[in-house]
Amino acid sequence: MSIAEIIKDTKTRMDKAVEDFKHKLTTVRTGRASASILEGVTVEYYGTPTPLNQVATINVPEASLITVQPFDPSLVNEIDKAIRSSDLGLNPSNDGKLVRVPIPPLTEERRKQMAKVAHDMAEEHRTAVRNVRRDANEKLKKALKDKTISEDDERRSLDEVQKLTDLHIGKISELLAHKEAEIMKV
User: Fold this and answer.
1) Same structural domain for residues 11 and 61?
2) Per 3-state DSSP, what percentage of the chain is helix, strand, and coil (rounded to 5)?
3) Which of 96, 97, 142, 184 has the highest CB neighbour count under 10 A?
4) How many independent structural domains does the chain possess?
């Protein structure tokens, strides 16, 4: 692999880690209702764990309510049970056709828990970015050992990989700070 290919691959993989972090942050609850809160919920459907959004329509008619309309009405109780057993702290109710999930205002303690969850996610993704850096550095060191690049090229490339790492970790920290502010806002 050439230096340019290694750097390009590294940047692409780090971008994916940041995008994944952005996506995961949407599942962390803030004070407002959002359909993405229920993204991690799975329902037993004919013996197979199936994501909730594949067996029902999820709507947010108002800021403190989510409605879940199953495609198959016989799933209402399963959906109700799945949402209750998820670690979201939600208490749904159903009328036999529709599951209503009221979003209670977050307590100070719950806000701190959610901020901690966001911190843990951020650390996971920072580690992923560092692992990408490690892989790139190993490729560069191998290229130097195989004499396909010079020491100066290796040094410059290692610096470039470090700059990419710093940039992407900065983006993750920025996203975390924004989400934390959103969670803690009463």
Assistant:
1) no
2) 65, 15, 25
3) 184
4) 2
- pLDDT mean over 167-183: 93
The span from the CA of 90 to the CA of 185, in Å, is 20
Whose tokens are 């060191």? That residue is: 141
Please choose, from the candidates 100, 86, 122, 121, the residue with its C-alpha nearest in 3D space to the C-alpha of residue 33.
Answer: 100
Rounded distance, CA 154 to CA 3, Å? 8
Provide the pairing of β-strand 56-62 with 93-94: unpaired
Tell whether pTM > 0.70: yes
Q: Which of 81, 102, 123 is the last residue before a domain boundary? A: 102
* Strand order across the beta sheet in which 56-62 lies: 56-62, 65-70, 99-102, 93-94
The CA distance from 138 to 130, in Å, is: 12
User: Range of 85's domain?
Assistant: 35-102
The pLDDT value recorded for residue 186 is 66
74 and 125 assigned to the same domain: no
The model's pLDDT over 75-111, given as tens digits with 9 standing for 90+, comes to 899 899 898 888 777 889 988 889 999 888 878 888 8
